[in-house]
Amino acid sequence: xxxxxQLLGKFVVTIDGTAVPSSLWRxxxxxxxxKLLALSPQYRMHREQVIDRLWPxxxxxxxxxxxxxxxxxxxxxxxxxxxxxxxxxxxxxxxETKPVVDIYVFETASAAALRQPTEQSCxxxxxxxxxxxxxxxxxxxxxxxxxxxxxxxxxxxxxxGGLWQRIIAVDPSDEPAQCALMQAALDAGNRxxxxxxxxxxxxxxxxxxxxxxxxxxxxLYEKALAIPSVDPVSQTDRIRASLAWxxxxxHSGDFxxxxxxxxxxxxxxxxxxxxxxxxxxxxxMGLCAQMQGRWKEVFxxxxxxxxxxxxxKVNQVFDGHLCLAEFCLCNAKGHHExxxxxxxxxxxxxxxxSLPGRGLASMILGEVALFSGHLAEAERLLTxxxxxxxxxxxxxxxxxxxERLAExxxxxxxxxLAKRLITRxxxxxxxxxxxxxxxxxxxxxxxxxxxxREKTLEIIQEGDRLLTLHDYGCQPxxxxxxxxxATALAEMGEVEQVxxxxxxxxxxxxxxxxxxxxxxxxxxxxxxxxxxxxxxxxISAFEEAAIRYAALGRPTDETRCRGAMKSAx
Length: 569
Prior knowledge:
By secondary structure, the protein is mainly alpha-helical. It is built from 27 helices and 7 strands. The chain has helices at about 30-40, 45-55, 60-80, 100-115, 120-125, 145-160, 165-170, 175-185, 190-205, 215-225, 235-250, 255-270, 275-290, 295-310, 315-330, 335-350, 355-370, 375-390, 395-410, 415-430, 435-450, 455-470, 475-490, 500-510, 515-530, 535-550, 555-569; strands at about 5, 10-15, 20, 45, 85, 90-95, 100. The longest helix is centred in the first third of the chain and has 19 residues, at about 60-80.
């Protein structure tokens, strides 16, 4: 009998050439037991070690019963009792045969390649790395160390073999690899390839965090632009170089210089009709203002100036401020200040005849009404905003309006309408360069309307995969998904996945000083403690969330948390 187990890229057990159907692994802990044993030395573990990994919060009696059940269902899925054997207190995977597990095949080959690295040996070893270790279990804590070690070993092998193209296929933001390829392209006189590589690098970095290419990468890019060629350097390439230098100034703390570069670059991008670059330059200006504590004033001035000067361009400028605008709505001071500003912006937009300006101001006012608990007023404003933004072809603002309308539909018991609105928003979001930001936001709402355990887990896995992609790294826009997925998993009893998610959400909330985000983490902690059976701590967490929501003027959220306190008691 032969047993092979794939853990890299996906989980598959094959017995005598036939894969065990994925439907037989519906018992999560049965699958987890097989994965744990496959990762263990000699494919065996003491029962206490298994319990410590899979049921760390359970008492001895409960954990023992859960382990017996996991062994039973694992044997049932594998079709042969002897494939999960027990010897005293030791649990053994396939003791009568020697399983072939892909991670050990890869580790053996990579160790040999690293001892005497050549391009061929490293490429052959890297071919055995089938992908991230158990990607559907990204938030299972005991997998962190082996997953990180295997991913690093894969990169080490690629780097030892000088396989730069394969490195950037794994991580487009790997600057040493990108710079090595850019230099090789320049040495070959291939200016176009060097420019392409630089643009790939800059697009993989997170603008909303102020991350941009290094000085070395920018210098190589400018060297490429300076090479004489039959094809002249495009205005787009010059604008992208300028944006990169602006980010370097931001990194160095020269916010005034970064702002000046961004403003000049935006004017060039506007003249060239480059919507994405207009948005990126606006985002850079917003980040400079945020670092100096004056974002709201800059946003208001920007909005008014563009609404009056070039009304049809307001949505392009707003796209660059989108993440910061949503953060401002969710900052520690609450949403009332930006509500006051939005009323003034609406008046200006109406006076200037700016259709996108009216839509965007109405959308912000609708969000303020929603947070304040005025659902009917919020729905009216957001519906009007969505109509205006559709006419103005302002995609990102329209998607946000649809997202909030779906949220209201969910709160008022119209799940069918919420699903329809989410589907519509997902359908149009791809037309915006901010699609990664918009789609991860929609995933958070989709978790809430999923309707079944299977669908909920499917959506959470989709969102997790998005977060592993570089383009989907926006922290403010990911908060809704992070908290909602953690809450849903807690309510389904998948408590082992919750702590890691909430720790990450808590870190982001603290870094961005997000008022309701902190409250949302407390609320999710309440769901976690309730799922663990810790009533006292659950009530305390829900109460903390309710107090924080009340201080921010969010009565609907406060009421929900106080209701959770009563139900937990």
